[in-house]
Amino acid sequence: MAILKYILPALAVATTAAAQCSQATATIQNSGDASALASCTTFTGDIVVATQAADTVQLNGIQQITGSLTCDGASNLTTLSADSLSTIGKNFQLTGLTVLDTLSFPRLTAVDSIRWTALPALQNLTFASKVSRAANVLITNTQLNSLNGIDLQTVDSFNINNNPYLTSIETQLGNITKALTIEANGRRLTASFPNLQWAYNMTFRNCSDVKVPSLTAVNGSMGFYENFFTGFAAPNLTTVGQSLVFDDNAQLTNISLPMLKQISGGYQIANNSALKVIDGFQKLAVVGGALDFSGNFTNVSLPALNDVRGGFNMQSSSPDFSCGDFDNAHQSQVIKGTYVCAKGQSNPGTAGSTPTGSNSPSKTGAAGHFEVNKPMVVGGSSLIAGLLSLLL
Asked: Scanning 86, 154, 188, 374, which has the fewest C-beta atoms within 10 Å of its C-beta?
């Protein structure tokens, strides 16, 4: 019986340790609370760093968190680290950490989702092993100058916005099942996706360069708005499942999609003031929605076009632009819906606008259909009204 006096305390310690490692929620208010979890190889539950946590919180020793790791509003926290953590089963959420300048997770490779919002002092990541698995990523309002340490293979949604010091994004993503959104980051931002083969929705805004050399299919829509690049190329893209839009890219002079054959929704090129020649779509045969081009272009070449199922709007400010090929296409019923083609316009308009002046024809044909995903529509109510006016 004497041995029991040794066994029972040991069992009590083990039971206490097990209880510490399995909780619905463990709240970390200080370094002592964090140290109490250091013996947990796996923590079953959620870990929440409290708002009153300050200075440094080190979650050392833990290799896996089955739930979420969350820290919201800890305005005095400067450092958050975990030297052994490789997996977070649910969310990695950081919000409103105004002085956090060090985020060190050298072994982290997998999370369900990353949601980092309002981290205005965070400039770099210390993620030596790199996060290669995450279903959803949202990073907004930080001072990050790169995303080194995040290199995903596949993702559902990837949204990087309002990070004014971010100058580069490069990841080995192979596919994007829901949405890619890159917008309002540093003016010199380059976005490179060398292995991306297919995506659902893609939106790029305020980028200086976008590279997608392996992209073959966009199942939803792809849009480029207010970017700073002079050219865009997708040499292997063959199909767009919904709409394709190039709008208000002031320095854009060249678009090259030489293998693109079908756009199932609308096709819009508008307000790209430096774009004079549109000839990078030599194999485009089918536009399932409306075709809507307006700008300063002198020449548009679509030699393979044989089916535009919606309306057609082509308005140019250039007096040298010719509508001849498109007049013929309309007369032969290649273009099925409302037909507008005009040159020499003082204010060339998008779909639904009425051309003015001696070079302005009347609308002919039945109403067409122009379809753009709502998140990708820009330009205010006038553009939306113009598109709606072409609905079947």
From this structure: 374
